[in-house]
Amino acid sequence: MAEFTVNPQRHDPYKNFKFRVKWDGQYVAGISKVTGLKRMTEVVKHREGGDPSTSRKSPGRNEFDAITLERGVTFDPAFEEWAGKCWHLGAALGAEVSLADFRKDIIIELYNEAGQKVQAYFVYRCWVSEWVALPDLDANANAVAIQHIKLENEGWERDIAVTEPKEPSFNVPTQ
């Protein structure tokens, strides 16, 4: 079977450097890194008394790894505002967490080299479990200041409405 049905001339898998993240209906500015989507299924071992001395295995509970989003420090307050819903310094007793809206569904989109959306994933019931507002600072370094949030989630699924797009071809004029 061909790896790409709409673009059979394509043999290279998609690259990992063109992507966008969306929540609350808007793209989040400046995200430079998203950790992978990973699901683990626990193994349940069982054995009947009359079975040979080996165990049978069946699938158990599913766990979804947290996702980390990174971006350079900017004036966009999206990370800070969301992290503030999980815990807010100086809030009244019992009001440290915004229980009504601290969870969000997010969308992670992957694009091909031509900027066409090729895959998207819905990630459900995310909340911020870790927030790094300001990284280590080093006067001898030559790097961008990176902040990140770690998102716990309760599962994800691929958006099957996103299908393989017809990739454009360009005719370059010859001299």
Radius of gyration: 22 Å
**H/E order of the elements?**
EEEEEEHEEEE
Calculate the terminal CA-CA distance, rounded to whole Å.
Answer: 39 Å
Structural class: mainly beta
Shape verdict: flat
The largest pleated sheet is described as: 8 strands, antiparallel
* Count of helical regions: 1
Enumerate the spans where pLDDT stays under 50 for 5 or more consecutive residues: none
Helix content: under 10%
Give the total of beta strands: 10
How confident is the prediction overall: mean pLDDT? Answer: 90
Estimate the strand proportion. 35-45%
What attributes does this structure have?
5% helix; 39% strand; mainly beta; single chain; 175 residues
Explain how this protein is built:
- The structure is a single chain.
- By secondary structure, the chain is mostly beta strands.
- The protein is 5% helix and 39% strand.
- The chain contains one helix and ten strands, in the order ββββββαββββ.
- Strands 1, 2, 3, 6, 7, 8, 9 and 10 form an eight-stranded antiparallel sheet that branches. It has a two-stranded antiparallel sheet with strand order 4-5.
- It is flat, with a radius of gyration of 22 Å.
- The relative contact order is 0.22.
